[in-house]
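go over whats below:
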Amino acid sequence: MNTDELYRRNLEGILKSVLNAKRIYRNQGAEEILRQPELIPFLIEYLYSNNKDQSIKSAWVLELVCLFEIRLLLPYLLDFTSRLNVLDQESAIRPISKICALICQHCNSHPCEPSVDQTTWKNNIIEASFEWLTGQHKIAAQVFAMESLFLLGQNSDWIMDELYSVIDKDYPCKSTGYQSRARKIMDKISKLKRKKY
């Protein structure tokens, strides 16, 4: 058995111990990954696998890993973001949209991984976030998508204009949670535009 097979077997054991979405199980999985960060590329591989159970559990665990230590994901940004558009399980999309927002927050306030192609991963997140925001997705994924787009769009008029337009159009028919975040994002966009002009 080679090293990759050992890593996969280890990761499968970790994911099997995540019995459901309860925080205690997700925390245990995340703590194991934090102790063995070499498993992160395999966790990303499982996230995009055809195995629904593995994909969802990988998303749950990776979300908490990123909450604890987002920098562990940065060397794998291209791999992580390259297949965002293939996710189709709402139980995976919500944590992944949150991870995208965490990446954007981190890279907005810290220099990002210099060896990673910034344009590609940012474009991947922008594309996925607009899909999550405009598609039939749960409010939490849409709220995280708004945050990502706002952070990535601060130096891009077209992103800000499109984001404002989508939020403004959808605002009346969405939940109060959506509306609350939408108001904050729209206010921030308006303030940025006033500063520019």
User: Anything to note?
Assistant: Residues 74-197 form one domain. The chain is about 75% helix and 0% strand. The mean pLDDT is 93.
